């Protein structure tokens, strides 16, 4: 199936039957899922694994439910492609960041201290991680059915080992461990027939997400060779992020005058109320009806709030996607840094009102998909989340996910005197992550049939 889109003066067609569905389509809500990492010890067994998994992977056809009741995404690290015998000339044609891997770029990304690779959960960040499988389903029964088929594919292969698994889920409310509704504000992509939820934002050029098509610059993004390997693929970043929920709640409680003020401070840090209602639309109080309305909870901009009286410029949501707030900067095109972002919870929620850490591991599995690792994920992480130069506050970092040593601050503009939150501790700790490549279905067959 091809989907025709307008690409400037030319017509561009997305080869939807060749693109993995995970990069383009929203997940069901609620859902349960599992991430699996495999190591390949035998090249022939690894290729046989790919051959067996291909029938489980759904393409990006719009409006089609998965054939197996669950969505499977298959991706490979650089070491994984190497272990499968992909020719060196092809390996060298991948993006430098992908070839280096996330652990090697940890300091650049701000993964230091407790978040440094030496503290990561094994085997994340090691050369043992070769294959990543993500399985998601609306219910546990169908998830287990697809996982059983996936396990059958590799358990019978002595040269392939399951080395890590993380179960995950999304609550019916869509809220994460911090209590805020997530998954709002995804960009639409040309050619997918998925309409933007923000009428102020036109769909991204397909080449921003999928390789082989023009991107926002009008050019084709650099693509791995040969064409069959790179075309219709996308880079995938996944990170396991432990959330210090008790520390977050305690911080707000100690600085708030009352519960209403506590909720307001939390909203100022995030840029939204817990319901998902944006501060840009409802700056004074939460609006649960707005938060639940997917046709309106992303319908806003920041251009009318340049000083951040409604939504602080340093809040998490505004940093991650400044929208039109940088239109006057001249040198910043926000669209060049947009990407698909998926957040999935893991571990049990800390019960409401509990301020003591129970020692349980909980947090978010963050997944990003795009065609440009450096100017999408890495740019947003280093320039917008870990730095405050672009908002005129060089010393400030993202109050939730920014690299923090306990001295971070957040400025909250208000009349008559601004408010400043100081000594923000690290509320999120990186437990590990990987840079992966999710090839098209033809590329998977090409890999499975390699004879090198």
UniProtKB/TrEMBL annotation:
Residues 283-308 have a biased composition (Basic and acidic residues). SUPFAM superfamilies: Dimeric alpha+beta barrel. One of its GO terms (molecular function) is peroxidase activity. This is Peroxidase. The keyword Iron applies. GO terms for cellular component: cytosol. Its cofactor is heme b. Residues 278-329 are annotated as: Disordered. Residues 72-155 form the DyP dimeric alpha+beta barrel domain. Belongs to the DyP-type peroxidase family. InterPro entries: Dimeric_a/b-barrel, DyP_N, Dyp_peroxidase. Keywords: Iron, Metal-binding, Oxidoreductase, Peroxidase. The keyword Oxidoreductase applies. It comes from Agromyces aureus.
